[in-house]
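As the next step, I selected for study one protein, both as residues and as discrete backbone shape codes, as given directly below:
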Amino acid sequence: MDLDDIAARLGVTVEDVDRVHRLAGDLPSAPLPAKADAPAILDRLAVRPDDAAEIMAGWPDPDSPLWTAELRWLLDRSIALVRADLGGHEWLPPGPELPRDRGPAWRHLYVYAYLALVDVVRAYHRDHGVPDGVSWATLADLGRNLAIDRRMNREGWPVMQSWLTLHARGGLYELGRLQHQRGDTAIGLHIPESGPLTPEAVAASLDEARAFFPRHFPDEHYTAFSCGSWLLDPQLLEYLPEDSNIVRFQRRFELEPYEEPEGIDADVEALRFVFRTLTTPLDRLPRRTVLQRAIIDHLQAGRRWRWCRGRFPI
């Protein structure tokens, strides 16, 4: 198919389609699991029944009228694009943002790509001796993100579709309370929505990572844990008590000199993670917790949150 025609039919820019074509080229894709096996796999990936039903309803059967030629092309080449970077640990958009209101094939195209890569990345994990439990705990972030996206009225997926390529390439591992992203000299820390961020849970996850990476990636040498987040903004200290879990997490880090990050709006990210909405007016957001009140009061005062980076030694 002509790339201009594909772009027009998908409702995206030619540049978006050209990027997929350029990165995927004619590299090998990967098949989806058998449809009969998909429900059990979705269950292991912690996909909720309502999301699983949508995914099954839009399954890319060979004779499905939902799957036009351009959608099948994008699915195949997106799988190839991500698979080509197996073992990579940088941010990797798998393809353009699609108009997801056009049906389940459009809404979940990158979910099908993720499902096709489950066996690929699990083989990569086995090659590195990663325990099966860690593999499934890591990959089950798919279900968590789909549930959050549903709570956000489908506002969250454009970020999530890129985020999940870290899991599908073996670039990130969920070890207890925290997710740990491979890097150059530092292990990047991420905080999934999975319970209180207690110092004990954080310490246990860090200890697990200290053993995990030398064992399974002995050629990679890490000297620090790092994190980039609005949670590291010192302005939070104006609002939160000293014994709060967030403050105690923040105090682990030595902050880098602040620089405005490119492509990240800390106000948007705080609203995304605290309220799971990007469009609700501030005066209609809940004020049940100290953190919720802090985010709202700060923004209503005309102030901005900051995305800060910090690290501490392994």
Remarks:
- The chain has a mean pLDDT of 97.
- The beta strands are 172-175, 178-181, 186-190, 224-229, 254-255, 308-313.
- The longest strand covers residues 224-229.
- The two ends are 50 Å apart (CA to CA).
